[in-house]
Design brief:
The chain is mainly α. 47% of the residues lie in helices and 0% in strands.
């Protein structure tokens, strides 16, 4: 009897961990977007450098850059 109760509690605990609710709430995501967590010290400067590199090497989009082929983005 104790075995069955333990098995039911174990299965219930395991299945409750598979809930669909997100771990990070939408209002908590602002804390994850803190600038200290970015890889670059100056994201504006690095975005410009990536844009210049893509334009000179004709490799638009090779580094997951956004925008179209016209160069306006």
């Amino acid at each position: 009897m104790v075995r069955h109760i333990t098995l039911v509690l174990l299965c219930t605990g395991t299945l409750s961990a598979c809930s669909i609710e997100p771990w990070v709430k939408p209002y908590e995501r602002a804390h994850l977007a803190d600038p200290i967590m970015s890889f670059d010290r100056d994201p504006v400067s690095s975005a410009y450098s990536h844009h210049v590199h893509q334009a000179r090497e004709a490799a638009r989009g090779a580094e997951s850059g956004g925008g179209g082929g016209c160069g306006c983005n």
